[in-house]
């Protein structure tokens, strides 16, 4: 990966819930294209787009876009709107669907045809989801297959990203431009972050030792939103959002934000199960009821433990339908009118502006995307590390718990010698980190 790709911040979209441009209640490619200027203003340079292909004879048809979402012309429109705002589009491919559609023997040749087609339409990167499945299929030829796929992408001058569940499958930088890890959220338990911090530590050490580049998100369509998982109905959403963003932006790991995180989206409104058309959500609800939960308890489980909140329609304005569409969306009315783009873009104190400041900082300061990493301390509550590039060094301190934390004297001494660049809390004491507090200190 080039330096500009490592210093950039990435955004991922679930088209069906992003923006409906033709008032059928389902988000689409033209809806995404119409908001590229806003995503560019926030500072994103790459956008992952998922689940866009049609079907033929019961299999994924990679030659056509799902007509509900758009067509080839819509991809070209998306490309030009993205390019105008200095954004590149990365297209997602499911590994199981690829093998099912192309077959094991013809996979490479058919894949090359598809990549050439979408490159000509303007796609500038591809991400293969569940790349581990290729290991299951090809066994000892797994690395050879990845090298062939990467060479196809190199020939087209596009980014090659692979989702890997088993990080140890990738041992060097010759197989993927970026290793995408989507399961970090599985390691997060409220007020118990040791496993999560150790993952971040190991990935950053791999960047240094093996020159492997990683991308990581905290929310995607397979998980509940991180705000729902950590905070539930109560808690300081803005403080936690800022703490997580400081951590994501300052690590060597490429930061990937999921749609809505820039407006602190969460499942924070009433839920009418009768209006939801998602069969998986309805099935989960019925199982919760069968287990003995009452209706309210089952609905809370839906919000906090399923991917319901990650599929909710984006809130673009404070109207009843959130500006997502002029007709009711897939998940019913949007009862809570808070957390919407229109209001947040008028509020300089909103998280959008804070995130933009961090993204610009990552682009300016090479210490974060390119610099050396050193772990100072971590336990179940706090993660402290340094990032350095040439003669510039930063100390980053993260407390994701809902309680204050007394710091070690050696860390306090380091803090006292530096200049506070960012602090998401009004208070600052070199001896204590408050709940959900994050600090960026230049040493």
From TrEMBL:
Record GO terms (molecular function): hydrolase activity
Domain Glycosyl hydrolase family 13 catalytic, first and last residues per copy: 12-309
Superkingdom: Bacteria
Pfam family, one: Alpha-amylase
Keywords from the named record: Hydrolase
PANTHER family: ALPHA-AMYLASE FAMILY MEMBER, NEUTRAL AND BASIC AMINO ACID TRANSPORT PROTEIN RBAT
Record protein name field: Alpha-amylase family glycosyl hydrolase
Organism, scientific name: Anaerococcus kampingae
């Amino acid at each position: 990966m080039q330096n500009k790709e490592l210093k950039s911040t990435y955004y991922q979209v679930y088209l069906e819930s992003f923006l409906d441009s033709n008032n059928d209640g389902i988000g689409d490619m033209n809806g995404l294209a119409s908001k590229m200027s806003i995503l560019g203003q926030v500072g994103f340079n790459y956008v992952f787009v998922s689940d866009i292909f049609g079907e033929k004879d019961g299999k994924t048809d990679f030659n056509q876009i799902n007509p509900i979402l758009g067509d080839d012309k819509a991809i070209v429109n998306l490309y030009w709107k993205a390019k105008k705002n200095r954004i590149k589009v990365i297209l997602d491919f499911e590994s199981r669907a690829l093998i099912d559609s192309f077959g094991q023997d013809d996979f490479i040749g058919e894949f090359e045809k598809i990549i050439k087609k979408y490159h000509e339409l303007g796609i500038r990167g591809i991400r293969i989801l569940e790349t581990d499945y290729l290991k299951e299929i090809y066994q000892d030829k797994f690395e050879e297959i990845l090298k062939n796929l990467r060479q196809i992408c190199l020939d087209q001058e596009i980014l090659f990203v692979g989702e890997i569940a088993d990080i140890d499958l990738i041992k060097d930088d010759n197989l993927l431009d970026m290793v995408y890890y989507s399961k970090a959220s599985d390691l997060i338990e409220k007020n118990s972050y040791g496993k999560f911090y150790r993952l971040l530590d190991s990935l950053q050490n791999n960047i240094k030792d093996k020159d492997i580049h990683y991308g990581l998100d905290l929310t995607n369509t397979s998980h509940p939103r991180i705000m729902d998982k950590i905070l539930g109905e109560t808690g300081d959403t803005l403080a936690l959002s800022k703490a997580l963003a400081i951590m994501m932006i300052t690590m060597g790991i490429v930061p990937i934000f999921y749609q809505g995180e820039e407006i602190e989206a969460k499942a924070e409104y009433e839920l009418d199960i009768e209006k939801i058309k998602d069969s998986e959500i309805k099935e989960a609800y019925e199982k919760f009821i069968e287990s003995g939960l009452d209706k309210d308890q089952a609905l809370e489980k839906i919000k906090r433990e399923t991917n319901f909140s990650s599929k909710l329609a984006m809130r673009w304005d404070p109207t009843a339908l959130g500006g997502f569409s002029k007709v009711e969306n897939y998940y019913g009315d949007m009862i809570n009118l808070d957390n919407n783009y229109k209001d947040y873009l008028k509020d300089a104190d909103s998280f959008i502006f804070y995130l933009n400041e961090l993204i610009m900082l990552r682009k300016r300061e090479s210490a974060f995307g390119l610099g050396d990493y050193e772990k100072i301390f971590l336990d179940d509550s706090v993660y402290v590390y340094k990032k350095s590039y040439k003669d510039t060094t930063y100390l980053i301190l993260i407390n994701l718990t809902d309680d204050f934390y007394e710091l070690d004297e050696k860390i306090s001494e380091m803090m006292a010698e530096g200049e506070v660049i960012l602090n998401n809390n009004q208070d600052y004491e070199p001896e204590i980190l408050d709940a959900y507090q994050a600090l960026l200190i230049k040493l």
